[in-house]
Amino acid sequence: MSKLKYLDLRKAVIATCLKMNEEGINQGTSGNVSVRTDEGFLITASGIPYHKMKPEHVVEMDFDGGYVGEYLPSTEWRMHMDILKHRPEANAVVHTHSIYATALACLRKDIPAFHYMIGIGGGTSIRCSEYAEFGTQELSDVMLKALEDRSACLLGNHGQIAFGNDLANALWRAGEVEAISQQYWAALLAGKPVILNDSQMTTVLSRFKTYGKQPGDLNENDAQSVIGPIRRDVSKKSQKKKAKK
Fold this sequence. Notes:
The chain is of the alpha+beta class. Helices cover about 35% and strands about 10% of the residues.
């Protein structure tokens, strides 16, 4: 047997799948995970339980729909391929059938800006796509439409999908989509949620772009996600010098 390429990345895909189920945002083998490589991408094989998954069960694919090895890729390989192909900022994709996101998807409900954390999806809403049969190009097409200017969406009568700059970021975003879906569900049960307007969300979205960045990573005109703290272990003189640069 030839040596497996991208062994560490394959192991990272399996670890992400296991964590996805441990966090309760997926059940059984219903979800799937992919990550970009230098030549294409890796994706989980079809129908193999994650606790039994080995590196050879993570399938290597190219962007022309070809695969390598004895195992078929996930039935949803088209969605993963099309995101990674058409969205250069995406390096990893997580698709799940998480409970509340799927429930809203079955109602064909977009999630509006009832809470500022809607911004984790990249815009002022998390859209729900039209329905299309699983594993088809039609599903991938309606998904791409729902993902325009977004990094996550609901899939009509199906589930949710999210992408990120790496596996951890994609998994985090999928978890946040599920959390905000549950919060929206609860808010709807209690009454009519108040929706934030575009002006309120504009500043939120600009600050979200620097979320997790440290001072050295910020450009002069970046909106800061953390507002106003004073650093006590650096002199005021030094802070003024840094501000002038």
